[in-house]
Batch of 2 targets.
Target 1
Amino acid sequence: MNPTPIPFRHEPQTPARRRALRILTALAGSGLLAACAGPEVRDYAAERPLLDLRQYFNGTVDAWGVFTDRSGKVVKRFTVVMNCSWSGPPGAETGVLDENFTYSDGTQDRRIWTLKRQPDGRYTGTAGDVVGEAAGQEKGNAFRWGYTLKLPVDGRIIEVQFDDWMYLMGDKVMLNKAKMSKFGVGLGE
């Protein structure tokens, strides 16, 4: 027994239908764009405790972390001991963050950041394995830091982008979440 085909009925496109279709398409597109938009550092301006990088990154700072791949699997664990200091006139200080990493596989790494505070409260930074200049800003309890890092992988160097967020939780506790990507594709956190 063959089912009887249902005839396709084509309705002519009227100007009102075309306009409605354009409006629906525009709304759907703007909804997709809004869903892709991420948080901005200004979203945290009212959050407390108030972060001051010069106060938090001063003296010796200990840190612990994990690196996860795209699936969320922990690939490496690490500890960091940072020796931090600042100098220069108020509002235009220069900071040195000497980071010493020890990874769970026994490897070690060192990155020495030179940070410069800008008059508007933004920061720029350089390090030996950073391409160009990093840029960041603090607002409220948050600091957002973006940079491109030269990363050794299987005997060669690849350049990856970091979107690095720090949130001050208390006087001596800060949470850090960094996303690593290449060509806009997420590689891990």
Target 2
Amino acid sequence: MTRADSQRPGESELVIDGEAKTLRLTLGALAEIEESVGGGDFEALKARLASPAVRDILLILHALLAGGGARVPMEALKTAAIDFPQATKAIAEAFRGLSGEGEAPGKPQGASPGANGSSTE
């Protein structure tokens, strides 16, 4: 199983300074993003994310890294070797967990329980 196969909804991976780091959208990360990027207003956050500045990307990465268990100081993040297009893809992948896309963890894709609880496949 590859790392990507084991990821949960709201999780992605990004290489920073040559080391793979987990980005995870947690409630704490979302609250931090809402406060730091949206000024505490979720609607303002959504509007600002429609066209984010580089600083917004750094703030979001910082929060998602903390959600994934990596405590990377903002100053270190500002000077880190990060592939910007990959960073934006990893952020988008982490946020896909909010939309409910994908299957629930542990549920085989395409299998749904029948009336008696058995798989309909």
